[in-house]
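Lab meeting, action items carried over

1. Structure of the two-component assembly. Owner: GW. Status: complete.
Input record:
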Amino acid sequence: MKKKFKLQNLIVPIAMPLIVFLIFFVCQPDRFGTPTGIMIMLQQSIINSVIGFGLCYNLVIDTWDFSSGSQLVLAGLLGAFAAQYFGIAGLIVVTVLVSVLLGTLTGTIYSVFKIPSIIVTIGLMLVYESAGTLFNGGASITIPPAIGFLGKSPYIFGVGILAYLLAYVLYHHTKFGYNVRAVGNGEMIAKSIGIKTMNVRFLCFVICGIFVGIASILQVSYGGAIAPKGGMDTMSMVFPPFMGVFIGQYLERYCDIMLGVFLGVFSMTMINSGLIAMGLPGTLQQVVTGLFMILFMAVSINKDKLTFRKRKEAV
Amino acid sequence: MKRKRLAAVLMVLVLAFTMGLAGCSGKSAEKEANSDGQSVQAASEDGKLPEKFKIGVVIWSTVDDLGKASADMLNYASDVLGCEMVYNTDISSPETQITATENLIAAGCDAVAICNYSDDILPKIARICEENEVYFTLIWRSIADPEVKEIVESSEFYLGNTCEDEEEIGYRMGKTLYDKGSRNIGVITMEKGDTTADARDRGFDKACQELGMNRISEVRNNTLTAAETTKAVENFLASFPELDGIFITGGSNTILEGVIQALALHNKTGEVKVACVDFISDLDKYLEDGAIDAISGGHFVDPLFSYMLMVNKLAGTPLSDQCETMNLNFVNLTSPEDAVNYYQYVEGESFPYNEEEIRDMVKYFNPDMTIDKLKGIAGSYSVDDVVARHSAQNQADADGGGQSGTDAGGQADAGAESDAE
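Predicted assembly:
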């Protein structure tokens, strides 16, 4: 059966980035929205989007993963170290391998001990952060510029598109993706139709590890260096992707969730760039970003209630 | 049988009592020697202090460039003097620094050095230290709030602080950028409330006002990574085509590398001038490539002087009856040669003060040491100072003289004299 095209499905997903763009463009026409600026913002959205693709699987089934930032840093440190001896191959293989192993470890601990995901992932975040600070004497690692080409345009876009396609196929066209959506829609029902929900949750951490590994390669290549982080500093690294996933989940009824994740992250990146373009003091920048997040969540959560109330009144 | 057992118990008791007395007499003998200040060196032939004092440090990290170099320096000094170091890096906010201090005291530290985020926590820390009779000092910090200063300085357990003129370095960085032709500057700094970053910011703003430069935009974040810094600089470049300078109030933890990477990505290296406080590795290469235009740092030795205030007090040979402020200079690197010298003599393979110089900073070993001399050593710290002391020593060693070329005391005299002038 042919799917009916709805104009709403096109308008709603692009509405938010468009509104954000227009607000800053009107305020700062000379500084914001130049072709170079748009390219830079798109480029900057890639890393957080890739992390978001990974986190999406967990968040859809209501599993929180705060350890992704520390996984990214630890995998990046080991990968950057390997890159010094084995070049780009060392960076790619070691980073993805370590990240997947860490994801597997997180998933194993979660599924074996059945501890709430927030507790497991925060605990493991501390462990991974400490491992990062112990590795190589806690020193930062700089990669040779020739190895870091994946962090530059157009390669970063190529990797981003491949990651998106992988996320899309896994979510929409595999048994695993079907199971994830089934568990996300209701664990009891999923169990009753024979889905081993704990296996699904475990696999979500593993799959998340793949995307975090890809993001880690891009992060190291883009920044040219990576340093260990401690004191829960890596937790702040997952908030922009989280925000992207929340927006993606809201937009899911209009478009593909992974595309929604990207649009969400892109909107957040535009806000960040726009506030800098406006020359606002750093503290105010954070206030505006925080208010935007609250506003979006308030609207998206309460919109359905308002629609329901209006329908009820109409009836 | 019973008699034998009784005799054995008595013998053990007598032995324990005798050993205890011997220990006490040994200690008191050392203290006596300290008090007359004459035969202290003879009292400890192994060159260690009479007790293994435990010194705690509340610091943001011991793994980034600055934190690690400082911890290495303190560990080295403690190895020389026979002390033990304990670090608490579990701090994410001013409040957690109070907890970190309590934890160090609970761990049995005899004195604690704190790199406080803000002045507000200091009255509480002073109270905790008083209650536990633990000495404390500040590192890299001075107290800006007059009320807090009065409260803290009235505590008999507060020994003083070591600090750099943060406002002056901010001003100097701004002036250097101006001299290099920059007029529109983006700033990468910490969130408001960080005493050091705020002071550097103030100094930079003063330079902007006086010299007519524009602070066009800023990014404030305490947890920037290299990639996040690259993003920030890219945003500056996209929004402000007129950007011709970047000032970084703290460049460690790959922040400076992120700036350099962003400028290289957009072919702006050398065109957009970079001024930064805090050293990173490979500075000689970056200076040679023109990726950095002004950089100051080398203040990793800062905690050593607060450490000396504590160690002297604990050893029973205090350098002063009141709290003291030790002023340290920033090291400026302007050429690749400066960087090579810095890494050869100051940070990296060797330490800026050798074993003998470290012992000379402690009155227990060097009865001539005074607070003014220690201040003199801190005040004269620079690459030239270290090169002069240690290259002479290396030369002497190479000549087979076997004698130390210089001593901290002598150098301190010079420093003290220059201070007096």
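2. GW to write a short summary for the group page. Key points so far: Chain A touches chain B through 47 residues (CB under 8 Å). The two ends of chain A are 32 Å apart (CA to CA).
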